[in-house]
Write a structure and sequence with these properties.
Number of helices: 4
Number of strands: 6
Shape: elongated
Distance between the termini: 51 Å
Structural class: alpha+beta
Radius of gyration: 22 Å
Helix content: 55-70%
Strand content: 15-25%
Largest sheet: 4 strands, antiparallel
Length: 185
């Protein structure tokens, strides 16, 4: 039973890390990445469809995203969706493809992005700590109901703390990498 609880804890913490990775991938760093346009959805024959399902997205240069729709009729819809998105990028089209040039970030914008990344990382840490608290509460409840001994309770809480420390370190590494990526010129 305790091992199941620890396994479940690990799964929840992994989900928190994955959510943080996804969130950080969508923060613009001055470098082109297909993940920047992952959240864009286009009205395609009346259905909101993710951009990557209706177009080929490539990165031919470090500061350029090229979007080539399979159906040329949806080119204007894609362009409108990019304008409406929070990317802050101006699409240019030649009738067949859309180019998104990623401008270099100025120092002030880099610092703002680092603050945003730190905030996201802190939210991830809070999520990990909340999972730890919930699990420790469950363990204490089992002890009060005399389902486990005091020693088992302590051992299990120690294991949860070790897991928590590991995942907090993972978040710190993600933060450090993203910070470095943003501050690169």
């Amino acid at each position: 039973m305790l091992q199941d609880l620890l396994d479940e804890t690990k799964v929840k913490m992994e989900k928190t890390i994955k959510a943080l990775r996804d969130e950080l991938a969508h923060i613009r760093t001055g470098r082109a990445s297909s993940s920047l346009v992952d959240r864009i959805k286009i009205s395609y024959y009346g259905t909101l469809t993710p951009l990557k399902q209706i177009a080929n997205i490539s990165i031919p240069e470090s500061n350029l995203i090229v979007i080539q729709p399979w159906d040329k009729k949806c080119l204007s819809e894609i362009e409108k969706a990019i304008w409406k998105s929070d990317l802050g990028l101006a699409p240019s089209t030649d009738g067949n493809i859309i180019r998104l040039t990623i401008p270099p970030l100025n120092e002030e914008r880099r610092k703002e992005l680092v603050k945003l990344v730190k905030r996201e990382a802190e939210n991830g840490k809070i999520g990990i700590r909340n999972i730890r608290r919930e699990v420790n509460d469950s363990i204490k409840k089992e002890e009060k109901e005399n389902n486990i001994s005091e020693d088992e309770c302590k051992k299990c809480q120690d294991k949860v703390q070790i897991l928590t420390d590991e995942y907090i370190k993972s978040i710190d590494k993600l933060l450090e990498l993203k910070e470095k990526e943003i501050m690169e010129v």
